[in-house]
Structure to design on (610 residues):
RNA sequence: GGUCCGGUAGCUCAGUUGGAUAGAGCAUCAGCCUUCUAAGCUGAGGGUCAUUGGUUCGAAUCCAAUCCGGAUCACCA
């Protein structure tokens, strides 16, 4: 039980005993006391006093006294200011908490509960490389999965690759027209970039043709339809759907180039999937449900043969689910995929990590699934996030104005190397260790940068301003971790020399009243750190409920910040007494553990030295 | 036009189940390396919480209206 719930429930029973008034713990608001007042936690009385028919001054004192009497181990004193009851938690409570947890490798992690959750994320197109927007998606999806795992859920990570459609045919066509049989191997270009280049080439050619046609007097709209490359791409899609061998072969070859490139990038950024779905295999799945929907009267057929659903009662529009030519649409295949996934995994919840431009789509999808009474409709959740934009506006892969994922990571690596070298602290590192360190710092900085803001906020990324390594960043937190590890390295070097008194053993073993007496005078920064550490589970909980990794990022940053103040203010190795030293080593150990665990929830590694 | 999301310091963002004098980072300025790693620490300046009205002991937070920015409302995915 967290300290906050403990206080709330103590207050609840106190109020019941004193006034026979029935409140539940959640009625009692318990906050951290503001620094300018004396106290650790504050119980807000305003909302209670009306019902108690007492002034908050009187009630606060009565409640405070009663709490002290009933829970002498928990509270040591209190004060009442206006409607606020500030309580001070006893040092022994905090020391007890620290003793119990400082050496627990699972601190903060919940036991398995067996709830099964499918997280679908990444979802790339196979006609272009991953860009900054995908990175936000990947980091968010990965982190959300880790956070849910930490709450004891079983997670299945899935990905749907959009590997078919006219946009795929566009790069195929451009390759046929312009490549002269060049391949990633022959050019030395990474496969996904190679194919992406042809996608851009297609659009260049298309624009050119539209312009030519317009200049010859054709209306722009018509020119866009009549441009030969566009018509050829559409023909290619028909060929593909008809299974024309050379088209399918070309499609497979080019997709494989892309997948090889993706694999490399995913490995770099640490994304993985338990199951990859390909749209080419799922795009026909939803059609069965069109039939069913018609039978159930959920859908209806219009005169031209198109099949629709009317969602106007739900405040939406009419939506087509099957074209008049009998083919399905995006929404149709998503219904099919949802059912497919459910049959495969029988999940309790299904999370889709997809940009907020598709909010409408997922609203409709859920509604349709509900109306069709598909079990997969239960607990379908769209984890949406804001687009990443450039100062000049949206990124457009057609126009080549994207921040490429691979390029960005390379750039971050260079910066990590430069900054590290400038500090000159890694002279004894091997090549391999350096390489690993740069990787940890560069990717950490990037992930933290994209995860530290609330998912819903759209963000503007300015490539001119490189990502900072100071302040609210991963390197800051990583540095704090490395500092702590450094202390322990030196400590174990010392303690192996003087084997008589191992400070850690003396800490755990010391049960004598003298020791606890001395230990129980926590300095403000010591207490502040322990209070921070105690909040970890509550923060994970909040992050899991809201599916919001930024909560973790903010928390771990504040923890590191508090530790750094503590570190500057008080010596650990040369503490005033052996008891203090033992206590501080425990605090440091738990801090390191929480930093490492929290960062892992963000998909970020921490270095032992930096 | 309908629906949804956002607007908090120069910039990037916390804070929104209503609680005390609205907080961080960056940037700016002033200090701190003879002591466990200065990618650090300490301090200063910087605010009409978009606007107006309402609800109440109390509003950045809830309600209404307005303004600004974005997304979406495709027989594209």
């Amino acid at each position: 039980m967290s300290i906050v719930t403990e206080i709330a429930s103590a207050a609840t029973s106190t109020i019941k005993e004193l006034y026979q008034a029935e409140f539940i713990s959640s009625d009692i608001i318990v906050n951290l006391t503001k620094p300018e007042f004396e106290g650790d936690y504050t119980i807000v009385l305003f909302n209670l006093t009306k019902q108690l028919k007492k002034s908050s001054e009187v009630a606060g004192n009565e409640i405070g006294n009663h709490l002290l009497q009933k829970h002498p181990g928990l509270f040591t004193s209190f004060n009442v200011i206006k409607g606020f009851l500030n309580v001070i938690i006893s040092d022994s409570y905090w020391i007890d908490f620290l003793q119990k947890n400082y050496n627990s490798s699972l601190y903060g992690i919940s036991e398995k509960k067996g709830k099964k959750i499918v997280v679908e994320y990444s979802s790339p197109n196979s006609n272009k490389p991953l860009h900054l927007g995908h990175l936000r998606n990947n980091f968010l999806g990965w982190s959300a999965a880790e956070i849910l795992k930490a709450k004891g859920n079983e997670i299945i990570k899935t990905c749907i690759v959009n590997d078919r459609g006219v946009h795929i045919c566009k790069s195929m066509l451009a390759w046929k027209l312009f490549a002269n049989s060049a391949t990633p191997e022959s050019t030395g270009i990474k496969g996904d970039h190679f194919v992406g280049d042809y996608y851009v080439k297609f659009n260049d050619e298309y624009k050119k043709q539209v312009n030519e046609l317009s200049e010859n007097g054709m209306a722009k709209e018509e020119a866009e339809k009549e441009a030969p490359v566009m018509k050829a791409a559409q023909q290619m899609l028909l060929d593909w759907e008809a299974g024309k061998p050379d088209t399918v072969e070309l499609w497979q070859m080019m997709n494989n180039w892309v997948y090889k490139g993706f694999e490399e990038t995913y490995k770099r950024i640490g994304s993985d999937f338990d199951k990859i779905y390909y749209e080419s295999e799922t795009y026909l799945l939803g059609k069965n449900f069109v039939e069913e929907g018609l039978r159930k009267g959920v859908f209806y057929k219009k005169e031209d043969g198109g099949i629709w659903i009317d969602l106007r009662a739900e405040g939406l529009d009419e939506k087509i689910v099957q074209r008049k030519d009998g083919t399905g649409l995006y929404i149709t295949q998503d219904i099919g995929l949802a059912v497919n996934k459910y049959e495969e995994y029988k999940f309790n919840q299904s999370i889709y990590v997809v940009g907020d431009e598709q909010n409408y789509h997922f609203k409709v999808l859920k509604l349709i699934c509900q109306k069709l009474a598909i079990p997969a409709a239960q607990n379908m959740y769209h984890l949406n996030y804001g687009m990443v934009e450039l100062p000049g506006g949206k990124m457009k892969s057609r126009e080549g104005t994207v921040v490429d994922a691979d390029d960005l990571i390379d750039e971050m690596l260079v910066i990590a190397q430069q900054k590290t070298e400038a500090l000159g602290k890694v002279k004894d590192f091997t090549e391999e260790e350096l390489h690993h360190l740069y990787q940890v710092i560069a990717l950490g900085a990037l992930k933290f940068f994209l995860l530290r803001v609330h998912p819903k906020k759209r963000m503007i990324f300015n490539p001119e301003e490189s990502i900072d390594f100071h302040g609210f960043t991963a390197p800051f937190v990583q540095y704090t971790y490395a500092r702590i590890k450094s202390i322990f390295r030196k400590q174990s070097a010392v303690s192996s020399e003087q084997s008589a008194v191992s400070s850690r053993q003396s800490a755990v073993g010391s049960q004598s009243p003298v020791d606890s007496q001395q230990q129980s005078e926590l300095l403000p920064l010591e207490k502040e750190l322990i209070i921070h550490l105690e909040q970890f589970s509550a923060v994970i909980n909040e992050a899991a409920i809201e599916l919001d990794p930024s909560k973790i990022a903010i928390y771990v940053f504040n923890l590191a910040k508090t530790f750094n103040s503590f570190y500057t203010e008080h010596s650990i190795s040369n503490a005033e007494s052996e008891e203090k030293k033992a206590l501080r080593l425990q605090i440091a150990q738990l801090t390191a553990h929480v930093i490492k665990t929290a960062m892992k929830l963000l998909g970020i590694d921490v270095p032992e030295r930096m």
Notes: Residues 418 and 424 of chain A are 10 Å apart (CA to CA).
